[in-house]
Predict the 3D structure of the following.
Amino acid sequence: MSSPGPYFSNNEFIRSDAVAVIVDVFGARDDNFGYLVHDTATGRTAAIDAPDAGAIKTALQLRGWDLSDIFITHHHIDHVEAIPELKAEFGARVVGPRAEADKIADLDVLVGGGDTVTLGETSFNIYDAPGHTLGHIVFHEPVGKHLFSADALFSLGVGRMFEGTPGPMWEGVKALRALPDDTLVYCGHEYTASNAKFALSIDPDNAALQQRAAEVAELRSAGRPTIPFLLGQDKAANPFLRADDPVLAKHYGLEGAAPAEVFAAIRKGKDNF
């Protein structure tokens, strides 16, 4: 029997008839997204990253949830700033990237690619996603098909390559691309409209991209977020997930080049767009 699709209600995202996880989505800082993941069996609730203590506490109050965990993806200040305040107030367990333990204070549990972390009865698989930062990780909940990608993968884009190099970043992106098409992706920022403009500039004849760009324009004009997005839709439209497509290699005059080289060209193009 095929699994039911996601149920959307305002900022609530649920998958499965027997609800195991509820994801609450809210804005934080200027353009960050905040996420609460609630395990319905045990009541444990995790914040994905800690961008803004006030926004997270407001979301918790509106739901009537207590914060038990904080899952950190990387060391940038807009993802970790609220850790001390939240940990002091709630006594939350803080899980974060082993490779960035020297850059993030107050981590209790260190994880990396191939590890699993639990939130009550819900399990998350950890993937390494280097590039934006060297130790960036993402959290994938395979049963409900939720991927919390932070700044490793955006709708129609990827994070700026601050610390990594193209080869490993492409390999990390490819590993995320291999996840099921009906995976719901929750990224770190609302960058989709600007990503769409760049993507169309290098891949103007892509029908899937045209459709997604139109959808994004409609959502943003209505003041609605473009997150979460379906991974399958992004596989067809996001140029960074298609660095091994000859169409994009040809655009950059890199026919026959390794996908990592094409990926580097796309990233440089976006940097200068």
Summary: The mean pLDDT is 93. The chain has nine helices and 14 strands. The longest helix spans residues 207-221.
